[in-house]
Write a structure and sequence with these properties.
Number of helices: 1
Shape: rod-shaped
Structural class: alpha+beta
Largest sheet: 5 strands, antiparallel
Helix content: 40-55%
Strand content: 25-35%
Number of domains: 1
Oligomer: single chain
Order of helices and strands: EEHEEEEE
Radius of gyration: 33 Å
């Protein structure tokens, strides 16, 4: 009669005939795959959130620039644009004329400066935005 073989327990606590650690390795690989997948998903959500915040800020800036440019274009067409402080569509700004260049200092809602170039002092043909960029 041969002696009865007693199964050994491996380090993970699972009963196995061998002590090669296959069960531990299997769960380690599964854990690493799940962790990697979760990290990728979190990174994607973070990037999408940052993109949405930047898009919202861009839309706010474009809306206030559009309101100021509309006011200035209307004033130039009617030849009634003067230096001073104005408010248009909830945007408060100051206009300073310098020959064919107009500086519009926007105070609220988001501070920035528009340097507008005019053609023959009656039509806007280009503008440059000067602002302090705040990353999201």
């Amino acid at each position: 009669m041969s002696p009865m073989r007693i199964p050994k327990k491996n380090r993970c606590g699972a009963v196995s005939d061998t002590s090669d650690g296959f069960v531990c390795l299997y769960f380690l690989v599964l854990f690493l795959l799940c962790s990697s997948l979760i990290a990728v998903l979190i990174g994607t959500v973070k990037d999408r959130t940052k993109t949405a915040i930047n898009l919202q800020r861009t839309n706010e800036l474009l809306a206030q620039e559009s309101a100021v440019l509309h006011f200035i274009k209307c004033g130039l067409r009617n030849e009634q644009l003067t230096d001073g402080a104005f408010e248009e569509s909830g945007v408060s700004f100051t206009v300073n004329r310098h020959g064919t260049r107009i500086d519009a200092f926007i105070r609220s809602p988001i501070p920035e400066v528009l340097q507008i170039s005019t053609e023959e002092e009656t039509h806007v043909y280009d503008y440059e935005v000067v602002r302090s960029e705040i990353p999201a």
